[in-house]
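Bit of a strange request maybe. I'm writing a small parser for structure token strings and I need a real example to test against, not something I typed by hand. Could someone generate the tokens for this chain?
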Amino acid sequence: MLTSEKKKYPKKLSKEIMGRLLITAAISLFFFGFLYLTANAIATTYLLENDILLTEGQRLTLQAWIRSISLFTAVLLFLGLFLFLLGQKMAYLQEIIQGVEALRTHRLEFTMPVEGNDELTELAESINFLSETERRLRQRETELREEKEQLIRDLSHDIRTPLTAMLSYSDYMGQKEMPQREEIQEYIALMQRKAQQIKALTDRLLDSGSRNLETIEDGKLLMEQLAGEWEEILEDEFSCIAETKDCPRFSGTFDIEELRRIFDNLASNVEKYADREQPVELRIDAVNNRLRILQKNGIRRQQAAVESNGIGLESIRRIAALYGGTVLVSATEEFFSIEITLSEVSETHL
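Reply from user aminoacidic:
Good idea to test on real output. This should exercise your parser:
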């Protein structure tokens, strides 16, 4: 676990090294004296036993050789013993160097063992902290990139629904020879509404998916309007039944464009897969104080291959999750139903 608090370790590495140095020096000095005195005693005994007389110069030379050999041996002992005593620290220091190299080359799976209670321990923990921080940052960057790509896919898919509706409206009006003025105004209003929806979705795409939450005082009226738009999309080809009488009057905080995307995706799913000979039912009510949207329809048989990648349903799931809701899908060979629950709503009496 990452923490902003850094544990303080006593500054005792230099003292520890100095202590081992003094111990090694004392042992080497004792060894030098012991070796020098022992060698002198052995040489003297040997000369006496063999009646060998040395001149003063020869005696001094012999002592110089004994002293040099003893000193050289003591120095070797000092170096060997000191390196032996520091061997563990040197090995740990080598591991720290490897950790620094791993961090430099972005091998983020490397983890330093934490040993001891000194500055090297603190350095090892710092390397692990930096490695874990960078690893989490990279993981977060990957998650953000995937979320952004998913957002682009969802919004791009959702833009197609109002765009398809606009094309259908314009084709229909283009095929009529003498459309009535009221009819023309109605379709112009519909196309303007869809154009505004496309603009809102495009703005959200360019703004990296920022939400526009509003406090809705009359939620039932909003649901009736969205159900009406859903019915307008489908009524030319399907028999639609939209029930909102059990929807209570409520208030809440919603992003209206997110709710509209839910209904557009529901309508798009019907257009692609629903049986035109069977009615399509839409019911809006509240269950356990949560707003619920329920759609049921028959499934078209022997239908031509229809492009499907599940983006519409996934988009609905993501929007529902923003409100702490869920999406339950039930499908058989003949029927399809989807139940969407959104956030808790506060019932009002307007």
